[in-house]
Amino acid sequence: MKHIIAPSVLAADFANLQRDIEMVNSSEADWFHVDVMDGVFVPNISFGFPVMEAIKKHATKPLDVHLMIVNPDQYIERFAAAGAAVITVHYEACVHLHRTVQAIHAAGCKAGVALNPHTPVALLKDILADLDLVLVMSVNPGFGGQQFIPNTFSKLRELKAMALKLNPELIIEVDGGVGIHNLEDLMDAGAMAFVAGNAIFSAEAPMEMISAMKNLNTGTLKI
Ligand code: DX5
Ligand code: ZN
Known about the structure:
single chain; 223 residues; alpha/beta; TIM Barrel; 8-stranded parallel β-sheet; 8 strands; globular; binds D-xylitol-5-phosphate; binds zinc ion
C-alpha cells in the first residue's frame, strides 16, 4: 500500500476554508485530517459540527476525524452523520474503549485510537485486532506547529511489530511535527499515514508539497 497523506485542516485559513479544501481536493492528498478539540481534554478549542459540516460539503476525499474530547461516545453518531470516514478517539479519554470502538463501527466508520506521547503502545495489545487505525501522537495534542518528539520512532517500531502479529491490516498514522524532513524515517519506523498541518499549509506551494510528500519513497519527485 502506498502511504497516506492527510493534510490537517487545523492549519488551513479558516476565512478561506473552501479555497483550501479545494486545493486539497485537487492535490495528491488522500484524506482530510479534522482535529476536534473541546478545551477540556486538551488546552485548546478548535471547531465542532458546523465547521465539520462545511468541510464535508466541499471535500471530495474521506474525513479522518481526530477527536481530542472527553466522553467521545456521546458524539460518535453525530460525527458519523456529519461525514466522518474514520473516527479516532484518545486512549486516555475512554474508560470503556472496546465499547467505544464497537460504537464507531456500528456507526459505519473506521475506528482509530490515538495515543498521547506518554502512553505506551503495549496498552493496545488487547484491542489492536479490533482497530482499523492507531494514531501515534508525536506532539502533545492541542496545537499545530509544535516540535516533533523523537521518542515517537521507538513507539512506531514497537507498534509495527505488534501489528504484524495481531493485525497486519492496521493503519499506523503519525500526527504532529510531521513534514518532508522526517517522512522517510517515519516510514522506515512503520508509519503509513501522515498528518501534516503547518508543513503543508505554511509551505510556499502547498499542492507541490503534498505531491513531494506523497511521492517521496518513489524517487519521482525530490525537493
Ligand atoms: C495537534 C493536532 C494535529 C495538528 C498537526 O493536536 O492533532 O493534527 O494539526 O499540526 P502540525 O502538522 O503543524 O504539527
Ligand atoms: Zn490531529
